[in-house]
Write a structure and sequence with these properties.
The complex is a heterodimer of chains A (262) and B (389). Chain A is an alpha/beta fold. Chain A has a single domain, classed as P-loop containing nucleotide triphosphate hydrolases (Rossmann fold). Chain A is built from ten helices and ten strands. Helices cover 68% and strands 8% of the residues of chain B. In chain B, strands 1, 2, 3, 4, 5 and 6 form a six-stranded mixed β-sheet that branches. In chain B, a hairpin with a 2-residue loop joins strand 2 (21-27) and strand 3. The longest helix of chain B has 40 residues, at 267-306. The chains are: A alpha/beta (262), B alpha/beta (389).
Chain lengths: 262, 389
């Protein structure tokens, strides 16, 4: 399928400037800058413990940075509060690593939850919208009535994605969406992301270790190393960089296996 | 959500933030529909109503002109799609105009699903009977499984008597500290207060007959025989059975118990036996502490409110105290310990993968442990009366 690659000069959907975070004496990020362009799928990679999840939580505002600013679609999250912040938070959808579904609600209720909280739509329409999103992420219609505990890990992730998509967000933040999925399910997930982007014009930030996903869906890949974004570029360009970890990552045995054959 | 680029020829397009509007015009038996503004989640409630009203009475043909849309999201596309679908099923001719690529891809994405068939709701009396039956079955099932668990514990215990080295001493001592030593302050404080209350209330009543010194007798019987052991058991049921369930439940949820089993180790002797044995050993000691604290509380209450001095209290206590009251109370402690420990560990093993189940089972464990302790206490009371102790 054709991929509408965003133009080089597309405005930044998310803009991080000078982010510094630390836990006690341990500095996680120091003066970190990152731009995520509107309409692109950006992969974020880095060694375990490099602070990928911390960065995601910083963008979400779940973790306060010591210095620096997070701008989402032009709005500085540090400068606003209350209702304005809630309004910005409605512009993104988040998929946590294990789906983070509310365990006391059924899948359908989970997916409808933001609609119930933020809109005045009648219940019937809410249910239809939820069914549409549940079908869109590739879950069978019967899974709507199930509780998260009855679903497999892959299905929980899909349900979490349906909930993240329910408000038609402009930005999608995904934490390891394909981790723990079998290769076929992971490949399905990749295609699903591409379809969603093509249809809905989403901007996606993807924290992942899955080399196949990086090759298949990401327009650019950001490398988190040495407490900052070491480089943001296409994989081909990253491989040309002289950084031992990046070299090892993409040209090691697994990296070579995942590279698309010319 | 997609912002549609304004086509050159479009007349005064409403702003993107405006409400969702619907322009409808009837020409002969044709209906012209032209959605305007932002057909997005926030404005959809009215838009859907408008759309439904516009379609009454049903027209013979519909022309849907989408060129006036400022914004459309998947929910809006779904509403449009669903109405078109319904019209087509009624045999109405539908024609869509003014769709650009972005709108078309949204309409494509938001294909309506066939209406779902809700399962028929059972009638009220029927569902009540079903619920009752289910609860009875669940309760008897739990009782059966708990009995089975107790049996397996006894089997494990007898195997341990033959091979004493299988008992994990470190674990046993750790749990004795957790369930016994650390419970001393709360148990002592609570029973001290209860002792005060019993002595004070008793003395107040007896004072009417000038017999307030017999408050000591009352205190001795009620504390030694019932209150000391019951209050201790209740506190320990709350503290320890819940923590057993939470600990073992978290291990089950984390597949630690499966890991033990796969290494050929028996979770019963590793996890359950040290916990229940620790309770069996420490609960009688706690009961003794509780008895003493309650007597101190009673003595203090009588001393400060009714001028019965400590020596007078002790003299009276020695005159009336019968060892069998004390022993009856103490004898119940190990049985309560087995009940509390078994329920706590048993519920822990019933945990499934989710964190929610552990929380739920913890509550269940406390309720069942309390229920069983009080039930057993009642049975003991009947037994001791029957054999005349």
């Amino acid at each position: 399928m054709s991929r509408p690659a965003p133009p080089q000069d597309a405005p930044a959907a998310i803009q991080l400037r000078g982010i510094t975070s630390r836990f006690g004496a341990a500095i996680i990020h120091e003066n970190l800058d990152l731009d995520i362009r509107e309409g692109e799928i950006l992969g974020l990679i880095g060694a375990s413990g490099a602070g990928k999840s911390v960065l995601l939580r910083t963008i979400l505002g779940l973790q306060r940075q010591q210095r620096g600013s997070v701008r989402v679609l032009g709005t500085d999250l540090g400068a606003i509060s209350g209702a304005a912040k809630s309004a910005v938070r409605r512009l993104w959808g988040v998929l946590f690593q294990n789906g983070a579904l509310f365990s006391s609600l059924t899948v359908s209720e989970n997916v409808q939850f933001p609609l119930r909280e933020f809109t005045d739509l009648p219940p019937l329409l809410r249910r239809d919208i939820a069914r549409m999103k549940i079908a869109a992420v590739g879950l069978p219609p019967s899974s709507g009535a199930k509780f998260p505990g009855e679903l497999s890990g892959g299905m929980r992730k899909r349900a979490g994605l349906a909930r993240a998509l329910i408000m038609d967000p402009q930005i999608l933040l995904l934490d390891e969406p394909t981790a723990g999925l079998d290769p076929l399910a992971a490949a399905d997930f990749d295609q699903l992301l591409l379809t969603l982007r093509a249809n809905l014009g989403l901007t996606v930030l993807l924290v992942t270790h899955d080399l196949d996903t990086l090759h298949t869906v990401c327009d650019r890949v950001a490398v988190l190393a040495e407490k900052k974004i070491y480089a943001v570029d296409t994989i081909e360009a990253l491989i040309r960089l002289d950084h031992p970890w990046i070299q090892e990552y993409f040209t090691g045995p697994r990296g070579r296996a995942a590279r698309p054959r010319p | 959500m997609i912002l549609l680029p304004a086509p050159e020829a479009a007349p005064a397009r409403p702003s993107g933030q405006g409400p969702a509007l619907l322009e409808s015009r009837r020409e002969a038996d044709r209906l012209l529909l032209r959605p305007l503004g932002a057909w997005t989640l926030d404005a959809l409630r009215r838009a859907e109503d408008d759309l439904r009203r516009a379609l009454i009475p049903p027209p013979a043909a519909v022309i849907l002109d989408l060129s006036g849309l400022a914004r459309l999201d998947t929910a809006g596309a779904l509403v449009l799609n669903a109405s078109l679908d319904a019209l087509r099923r009624q045999g109405v001719e539908v024609e869509t105009t003014g769709t650009d690529a972005a709108v078309a891809s949204l309409l494509d994405f938001a294909a309506p699903l066939p209406p779902e068939q809700p399962p028929p709701a059972p009638s009220l009396p029927y569902s009540l009977i079903t619920a009752l039956g289910r609860n009875v079955c669940a309760a008897s099932d739990t009782a059966l499984r708990l009995t089975e668990f107790f049996g397996r514990f006894l089997a494990c215990l007898s195997a341990m008597l033959l091979h004493p080295r299988r008992l994990r001493l470190t674990s046993l001592v750790f749990h004795m500290e957790q369930t016994g030593l650390k419970a001393v302050p709360i148990v002592a404080l609570l029973t001290f207060l209860v002792g005060m209350v019993v002595a004070y209330m008793g003395a107040k009543q007896l004072q009417q007959y000038g017999a307030q010194v017999f408050a000591v007798n009352l205190l001795e019987v009620s504390i030694m025989r019932e209150m000391g052991v019951l209050i201790t058991a209740i506190v320990v049921a709350g503290r320890s059975s819940s923590s057993f369930t939470a600990q073992i439940g978290a291990m089950v949820a984390n597949e630690e118990v499966d890991a033990l089993r796969s290494m050929g180790l028996d979770p019963m002797s590793l996890l359950v036996a040290p916990r229940i044995l620790a309770l069996i050993l420490t609960l009688p000691l706690l009961v003794f502490t509780a008895d003493m604290a309650a007597l101190c509380g009673g003595a203090a209450a009588l001393h400060f409110s009714l001028d019965i001095s400590f020596p007078a209290f002790l003299t009276q206590l020695q005159a009336v105290a019968r060892p069998q009251n004390f022993l009856v109370g103490l004898a119940k402690a190990p049985f309560f310990a087995i009940l509390i420990g078994c329920v706590g560990c048993f519920q822990g093993f019933r945990a499934t993968g989710s964190a929610e189940s552990v929380g739920f089972l913890t509550t269940v464990a406390v309720v069942q442990a309390l229920f069983l302790v009080i039930l057993a206490d009642a049975l003991f009371a009947i037994l001791f009366t029957a054999i005349g102790i």
